[in-house]
Amino acid sequence: MFTVEAERNIVISSLAINGGGRGAGEVKVYTRQGGFTGHVEGDEGWELVYHNPAVTHNGRGQPTELGDFQRSVFVAGATSQSFFVTSSKNLVYQRGTQEQAECASDGTLAILEGIGTDPTFSALVHTPRIWGGIMR
């Protein structure tokens, strides 16, 4: 789970993920307005915007393009949006330094350090973590 902060109005329509293994696997992407704090252990308030049971993962270090979400995500300028990305092939991420610290920015959006968890909404949390994918 991680949060992005929009500098201006943006639309996020897809992701490229960094999978932990090769081959077909299930991928889900959930989103919610604002942060994820307090919304880690259950899906209440989250919206599933992408689900594909057979994404061909390219393996560690090789971006896996998901294709378009079933519904693009509009993020208004000066607001934040959180994402929960899961893969049955696992995801590669890095250890962070401080949850909610900015770890990447391109002048349009900033990606904040988040958490790692299992593929379901769970209390099992590894923090802080830096998401290892690409936003489109």
Properties at a glance:
136 residues, mainly beta, Jelly Rolls, six-stranded antiparallel sheet
The biggest sheet amounts to: 6 strands, antiparallel
Query: Which strand order does the major sheet show?
Result: 5-4-8-1-11-10
Strand content: over 45%
Total count of strands: 14
Instruction: Find the CATH superfamily.
Output: PHR domain
Could you tell me the mean pLDDT? 95
Proportion in helices = under 10%
SSE order, one letter for each helix or strand? EEEEEEEEEEEEEE
Count the DSSP helices. 0
CATH level 3 topology: Jelly Rolls
CATH architecture: Sandwich
Cα radius of gyration in angstroms: 14 Å
Describe this structure in words.
- This protein is mostly beta strands and 136 residues long.
- It has a single domain, classed as Jelly Rolls.
- It is built from no helices and 14 strands.
- It has a 6-stranded antiparallel sheet, with no helix packed on it. Strands 6-3-14 form a 3-stranded antiparallel sheet, with no helix packed on it. It has a 3-stranded antiparallel sheet with strand order 9-13-12, with no helix packed on it.
- The chain starts with a strand and ends with a strand.
- The mean pLDDT is 95.
What order do the helices and strands come in, and which of them pair?
Blueprint: E1 2-6, E2 10-12, E3 15-17, E4 22-33, E5 47-58, E6 64-65, E7 73-75, E8 80-87, E9 93-95, E10 102-105, E11 109-112, E12 114-117, E13 125-131, E14 134-135
